[in-house]
Structures are given as structure tokens and as C-alpha cells.
């Protein structure tokens, strides 16, 4: 079939529209959004514009162009899906791997206590026994876990001022204990 200057693209399209569906069916493409059909139509238009009669029949050129454009779109979609799946898996891994405290949709890693050198566990227990629960949280998260006061406040669902207050109370108790000499916690 040669390109006839008297035939418009609309006429040629009506005669060859089935080629798009045929190539989609051969490639096993389900197209509820008609994205692949549109790509096939565009491929047919480009083939119509670029067709050179001395290079072969128009029908063959349509088939070749439509098929290759559909394959390119399939590859692009598969690549995009791969990247999205990889990113999704990475996000899930970051949220679920290891020990985390979740509050307000923000993960906070728990300090890895075995990595902290506890030279005298008895002293740590003694300190914990003399502190309130919130004061110990300040020691555990701020001193041992190196979390900011703001992050602790978010995690514990309280104000920054409350967390600062816990820290002040801990420092007062430590100062008192060191003055009395009953607690030699930070000394070597």
C-alpha cells in the first residue's frame, strides 16, 4: 500500500486502526486507560508522516512502528514499576527494621544499649532507683540515646519544657549525690 497524497490520515487510520489492537493483543497488553492505544495511534501518525514509499509497503511500516512503540512503553512502565517497588520496599525496611519507637508517624531509633559501655551496672541501677520514670527517660534517651529534647517531647507526647524540666531535676539529683559523696557515678 503506497502513501497516496489524496488520502488523509483519517482515511488511512480508519483502514488501519485494527493494527493497533492487533499489536496490543500480540503483546498481551490490557489497556483500560487506553494509554497504549494512544501510543499506538501516535506511532501510526509518525509512521504516516515519515513514510517513504521506495522503502517498502506502508502496512509493514505501520506494524513495525506500532509494535516497537508499544514495546518501548511496556519497558518504560516496567522500569517505573521496578523503581517504585524498590522505593516502597526500602521505605518499609526503614520503618520496620530494628527497634523503633513510633509516635506521631516519626520513627526514632532506640539506643543500642549493649554498645554503650556500662562500666558499673550496679551504679546504673542505683541511679535509676533514685530517679522518677520521666527522669530516667531523660537519661536513657538524651544522654545514652543522644536524642534531642524536642524528639523526646514528641515521642513522649509532652512539651519540650517538660522534658527540659526532667533534665534539670536529674542534674540537681546528680549534683547532690556527688556533693554528699554517696554517688560516684561519672568518676573513674
Automatic annotation (TrEMBL):
Name of the protein this chain belongs to: Sigma-70 family RNA polymerase sigma factor
Classification via InterPro entries: RNA_pol_sigma-70_dom, RNA_pol_sigma70_r2, RNA_pol_sigma_r2, RNA_pol_sigma_r3/r4-like
Domain of life: Bacteria
Residue stretches making up the RNA polymerase sigma-70 region domain: 13-78
SUPFAM superfamilies the UniProt entry points to: Sigma2 domain of RNA polymerase sigma factors, Sigma3 and sigma4 domains of RNA polymerase sigma factors
Organism: Oceanobacillus longus
Pfam families xrefs: Sigma70_r2
Amino acid at each position: 500500500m503506497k502513501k497516496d497524497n489524496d488520502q488523509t490520515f483519517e482515511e488511512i487510520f480508519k483502514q488501519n486502526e485494527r493494527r493497533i489492537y492487533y499489536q496490543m493483543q500480540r503483546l498481551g497488553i490490557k489497556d483500560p486507560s487506553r494509554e497504549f492505544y494512544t501510543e499506538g495511534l501516535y506511532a501510526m501518525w509518525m509512521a504516516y508522516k515519515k513514510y517513504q514509499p521506495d522503502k517498502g509497503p506502508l502496512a509493514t511500516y505501520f506494524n513495525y512502528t506500532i509494535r516497537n512503540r508499544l514495546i518501548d512503553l511496556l519497558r518504560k512502565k516496567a522500569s517505573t514499576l521496578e523503581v517504585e517497588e524498590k522505593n516502597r520496599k526500602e521505605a518499609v525496611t526503614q520503618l520496620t527494621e530494628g527497634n523503633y519507637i513510633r509516635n506521631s508517624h516519626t520513627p526514632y531509633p532506640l539506643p543500642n544499649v549493649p554498645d554503650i559501655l556500662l562500666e558499673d551496672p550496679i551504679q546504673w541501677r542505683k541511679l535509676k532507683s533514685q530517679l522518677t520514670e520521666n527522669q530516667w527517660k531523660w537519661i536513657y534517651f538524651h544522654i545514652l540515646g543522644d536524642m534531642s529534647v524536642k524528639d523526646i517531647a514528641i515521642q513522649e507526647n509532652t512539651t519540650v519544657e517538660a522534658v527540659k524540666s526532667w533534665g534539670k531535676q536529674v542534674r540537681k539529683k546528680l549534683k547532690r549525690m556527688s556533693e554528699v559523696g554517696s554517688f560516684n557515678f561519672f568518676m573513674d
